[in-house]
Amino acid sequence: MDDWTAVGEGAAIGTRPLCVAPVSISRWALIAAGPVVTREVPDFTLIVGVPARRAVWVGRAGEPIQAKDDGRWICPRTGAEYRECEGRLTELPSA
Questions:
Q1: Any domain includes 14
Q2: What is the spatial distance between Cα 16 and Cα 68, in angstroms, rounded to a whole number?
């Protein structure tokens, strides 16, 4: 299936993106209207533009998250915490 675009859990895609397959849109990623996506979209990423690029990190609530410290991020709506490492964002277990 080299010519498919895979879409992960919770991902949302805006109007008329161009996905140059094969690409994958990972979990909880958001694709704005009209970008040209030519490579993998990491988890929790808002992608915009031509060519597509990360605009901000977003949480499961679909809102931009805020930097806390030491590579940690927090969702202002849910309080969920995330950690950034090597250009990837992972959700931390809730306390």
A1: yes
A2: 34
